[in-house]
Write a structure and sequence with these properties.
The protein has 408 residues and is α/β, with parallel strands linked by helices. It contains 14 helices and 19 strands. Helix 1 (24-36) links the parallel strand 1 and strand 2. Helix 1 crosses helix 9 (175-184), helix 5 packs across helix 8 and helix 10 crosses helix 14. It is elongated and about 85 Å long.
């Protein structure tokens, strides 16, 4: 079984831009290595890049169609650049020619790759590849300086022999180096050294040995938050109800089934945590007296007496000197009103509210959050849950540091 070399790229969406440089042939190896590291890869091939390597090559290596047209009639509303911009966890342009670097600096949007770079909220990286004189030119250096100031990440270049026969700086980094640098984009260090305790998934409350009460939570959001926190440098413990999801890399997972089991697992660890994120959909009630035998179908109706489960979130928030506590509120109506009430009633530091039902929230690949604290509301717009989790984690890290500074 193959183990990805760069665990930070597991399940990441990497959009690779290939532009007009002889180094475009190296991009084929880069696609292969990105996929070996666990990433899903889509390729945007510029007209210049297609002069060096055919779209079929990248389609075969990535397992996805290659994109080249700005106005894609097969995309939703012909807005392919918006779809790709939202899909990407990171945009890596390799090779990045002197021409594309200049066009990015100008903010051009007259081809697909440039438009995606303008439209995405994901980190953008460029791996320059050009003649050493072009690299040394003041215009190129000024362009790179401007892109750095805007948050674009330069990967290289390195020095060596070039296709033109000259030797010097301007040679594109090797594929393994670009993969490593791409993985580092996600290792932010925002939670370095902190202990983060997270709950995820549903709970199952036994009716009898074969039946239970539960809900529609898939656990995807909680698992995405666990992965994002681990990438941010935290030691992460994930207390998970029953799910079919794989444990994120670098995360300690504790499996539970019922709300009472989750309560015991969390309260036994909460005093050692710096941050507690309660994303699990914990059942509010459980059957008062589960049957020891399977209940037979003997009557037209069946009544169950239910009793309240312990309030895990409220108990953690009430711990003396307890962790920074983040709750979740999934609502079908009056989202902000109910979330603010829960924030105040349970004395939380922060709450992430999302609307559920009608294809939103549970079992969906994407979500949106309204994050509320004492200072107001931060809207995290609709995005794949992995991206949303990284944005939420960054916000939690910022507020945790701010609260910690108040106690210094």
């Amino acid at each position: 079984m193959h183990i990805p070399a760069n665990k930070s790229l597991v399940n990441k969406h990497i959009l690779l831009g290939v532009t007009g440089s002889i180094a475009a042939y190296k991009a084929a190896e880069l696609v292969r290595r990105l996929r070996e590291s666990g990433a899903e890869v889509r390729v945007v091939l510029s007209a210049g890049g297609a002069e060096f390597v055919t779209p079929l090559t990248f389609q075969a290596l990535s397992g996805n169609p290659v994109h080249s047209e700005l106005l894609d009639t097969e995309a939703e509303a012909a807005m392919g650049h918006i779809e790709l911009a939202r899909w990407a966890d990171a945009v890596v342009i390799a090779p990045a020619s002197a021409n594309v670097i200049a066009r990015l600096t100008q903010g051009r949007a007259d081809d697909l790759l440039a438009a995606v770079c303008l439209a995405t909220e994901a980190p953008v990286a460029v791996a320059p590849a050009m003649n050493q004189q072009m690299w040394a030119n003041a215009a190129t250096q000024d362009n790179l300086q401007q892109l750095r100031a805007r948050g674009v990440h330069p990967f290289g270049p390195t020095e060596g022999g070039q296709a033109c026969g000259e030797t010097g700086p301007g040679r594109m980094l090797e594929a393994a180096d670009i993969v490593r640098r791409t993985a580092e984009l996600f290792d932010t260090g925002a939670l370095a050294g902190l202990r983060v305790l997270i709950t995820a998934g549903p709970t199952q409350e036994a009716i009898d040995p074969v039946r239970y009460l539960s809900n529609r939570s898939s656990g995807r959001m909680g698992y995405a938050v666990a992965q994002a926190a681990a990438e941010a440098g935290a030691h992460v413990t994930l207390v998970s109800g029953p799910t079919a999801l794989a444990t994120p890399p670098r995360v300690e997972r504790i499996d539970v089934r019922s709300a009472e089991e989750m309560h015991a697992a969390v309260l036994g660890r909460a005093t050692d945590a710096d941050i507690f994120i309660a994303s699990a959909a914990v059942a509010d009630y459980r059957p008062a007296a589960p049957s020891e035998q399977k209940i037979k179908k003997t009557t037209d109706t069946l009544s169950l007496e239910l009793v309240r489960n312990p309030d895990i979130l409220a108990e953690v928030a009430a711990l003396p000197g307890g962790p920074f506590t983040v709750g979740f509120a999934a609502e079908t109506a009056n989202l902000l009103e109910y979330a603010r009430d829960k924030l105040a009633r349970k004395d939380l530091d922060m709450i992430a509210a999302n609307r559920v039902g009608g294809g939103l929230g549970f079992e969906a690949e994407e979500n949106a959050l309204s994050v509320i604290d004492a200072n107001g509301v931060t809207e995290l717009t609709q995005a794949p849950k992995a991206q949303l989790a990284r944005r939420l984690t960054a916000l939690i890290a910022e507020h945790f540091r701010r609260r910690s500074e108040c106690f210094l």
